[in-house]
Structure formats: structure tokens, C-alpha cells
Amino acid sequence: MIDIKNVSKSYTMGSNIVKALDDISFHVDEGEFVSIIGPSGSGKSTLMNILGCLDVPDSGTYTFNGLNVEKARDSSLAEIRNKQVGFVFQNFNLLAKLNALENVEVPLLYRGLNSKECRKTALKYLDLVGLKDREHHKPSELSGGQQQRVAIARALAGSPNIILADEPTGALDSKTSNDIMALIKDLNRNGQTIILITHDKTVAEQAKRVVRIEDGKLYE
């Protein structure tokens, strides 16, 4: 599903060149649950951006479901982001003026689905994450854990090949964090491929496979 070989990525900061990723190789099979753990500045965010086709490497190769990402057109990368990758972020990234149902519907509407189908699909995934009775609540009317569940429902609604979760429990208390991790593990047991990026060892070790990133290099 995901195959990264000898990938490097650098950024210019003032007069300095910072190597965010340094000749890394990484493979994820369909149905895996992998956590990538590392401290701030280790290269986690850069790796997430490349995995999610938000950025491309300077060198090396990244193959996503058979597509050579670094040579792909912008339109192809946009299609991957919209149809094949479900993003779950630490700060939820929900639209404040929309209720839970509408937040889940948004990416489906961008795909061109009719409103009836969008509504049906959004309700299905809100129910899956235990929030069908909160469908008309706006983010400000939901707890942090409920907002993250809406974000997960939104990611799942597009039937992605992979869920890419960036610090999905970082803004939550310990009990709510445990609830979200239980949901993520349940999704994986049902066949969903998940890559979780975190700095929290306790969270990382709940994955079936743990990869560490430090100073732009990966260690298994």
C-alpha cells in the first residue's frame, strides 16, 4: 500500500538548510496499524505531509497504491487526498458554523455526491462513532472527545484506504484519550489501515507496530 524508499526532505530556514528527513525507507501493508513516535522537531510532521500527499520528497521514491507520488500531477495528488486518505488532526479542524452532521458531509459534497446520499453516509458514520444523537450539535456544543469522534467520522465517510492520524489524542484528557484509542483499535480490527503519529509513548505502544523517528531518521 505504502512504500517509501530512500526519501529525503530539506527546508531552508534563513541561511541554514535543515534536513527534516534523511534517507528513510518505510513500508505499510493494507490492514496494518502503525504508530510513528518522535519528539518535536524529529521530522514527524514532514513525514506526515509526505505520507498524506500534502508534500513531495526532494529525493527517493514514494509509492502509494502503485502511484509514484513524487512524479504525480497535482490533480492526482488532490484525488488521493480527497478519496484515499482520511486525515484526523489533534485540533479536530471542524468548521465552527456547521453542526456535526454537516461537518461530516462537507468532503462528500466536494466529491459531487447528491445531498441525500451525503446525509445518509454522514449519519452512518456518526452512528459508528457513537454520535448519532449529537448530529445537530455544533463543535462548541461538543466535548473534546466528541469533536474528535466527529473528525474520525468525517475521515471515515469517504471510505479511505488509509487513516492518517496526527496526534489524535494530544488535546484530550487521559480518559477521553483512552476512549479514542479504543475506537481507533476497533476500526483497525475491522480492517482499516491506520498510521498514527504521536510523541506519546503510551499512545504509540497501542499500535501493532511502532516506528521511531529521530533527527530525520527512522528506527524500527
TrEMBL record:
SUPFAM superfamilies: P-loop containing nucleoside triphosphate hydrolases. InterPro entries: AAA+_ATPase (IPR003593), ABC_transporter-like_ATP-bd (IPR003439), ABC_transporter-like_CS (IPR017871), MacB-like_ATP-bd (IPR017911), P-loop_NTPase (IPR027417). It comes from the Bacteria. Transmembrane segments: none annotated. This is ABC transporter related. Pfam families: ABC_tran. Belongs to the ABC transporter superfamily. Residues 2-220 form the ABC transporter domain. It comes from Clostridium cellulovorans (strain ATCC 35296 / DSM 3052 / OCM 3 / 743B). GO terms for cellular component: membrane protein complex. Keywords: ATP-binding, Nucleotide-binding, Transport. Coiled coil: none annotated. GO terms for molecular function: ATP binding; ATP hydrolysis activity; transmembrane transporter activity.
